[in-house]
UniProtKB/TrEMBL annotation:
Keywords: Oxidoreductase. This is NADPH-dependent F420 reductase. Pfam families: F420_oxidored (PF03807). One of its GO terms (biological process) is copper ion import.
């Protein structure tokens, strides 16, 4: 099963492409510039040894090439416009929205849209016939791109379609991480808002680490 990653030339998209391809899932990077997408794909393939192939295409061709799942990894400023450009190709597919609406002037703050979250905005724009699943909001791009490090967090998954969420959870678990059903799309308001908190902690001089993630821990036995 191949997946498309739109915005795959950015740090988050590149890291996810590397991780999924290494796990055996073919990846198509989508960008407004198809040539740039293929150039990035060639760079990423050079880092992999015998893993699934990463290819690059213009946005619409990338969506068409995906068997079922399309990951949206663009900056929030391009979120709605990108969805408008591909919405007619999405029926029959699952959109995985990983976008966080960070404040333009301060990435330590969110600037939520009127819909409440990026995930909800995508669902409202696409309509209920296209299941939108919010996921992978809190994973460090730096960690994703360091293939010699395991991903240091769990993943919270939300959306209104249970079957779609279960498929996304199964996909994410291919990366060697735990993923949890965190409820309906409205809960994306909380999940997306965790990202600027992590950014604040990771850049604080009073905190002795960077690129932190979150984990769901069981009680002590």
């Amino acid at each position: 099963m191949s997946i498309a990653i739109l915005g795959g030339t950015g740090p988050q998209g590149r890291g996810l492409a590397l991780r999924f391809a290494r796990a055996g899932t073919p990846v198509v990077l989508g960008s407004r510039d198809g040539g740039r997408a293929q150039g990035i794909a060639d760079e990423l393939n050079a880092q992999l040894e015998g893993a699934a192939t990463i290819s690059g295409e213009p946005l619409r061709e990338a969506v068409a090439a995906a068997d079922e799942m399309v990951i949206l990894a663009v900056p929030y400023s391009a979120h709605d416009a990108t969805l408008e450009a591909i919405r007619d190709l999405l029926p029959g597919k699952i959109l995985i929205d990983i976008v966080v609406p960070l404040d333009d002037g301060d990435p330590k703050r969110v600037d939520m849209p009127a819909a409440g979250s990026a995930t909800e905005a995508a669902q409202a724009l696409l309509g209920e016939e296209v299941p939108v699943v919010g996921a992978l909001h809190n994973v460090s791009a730096a960690i994703l791109n360091q293939l010699d490090h395991s991903i240091n967090c769990d993943v919270l998954v939300c959306g209104n379609d249970l079957a779609a969420k279960e498929k996304v959870i199964e996909l994410i678990r291919q990366l060697g991480v735990e993923a949890y059903n965190a409820g309906p799309a409205v809960n994306a308001r909380c999940i997306e808002a965790i990202t600027p908190i992590l950014i604040r902690l990771n850049i604080s001089k009073k905190v002795p680490f960077t690129h932190a993630g979150i984990r769901i821990w069981a009680p002590d036995a």
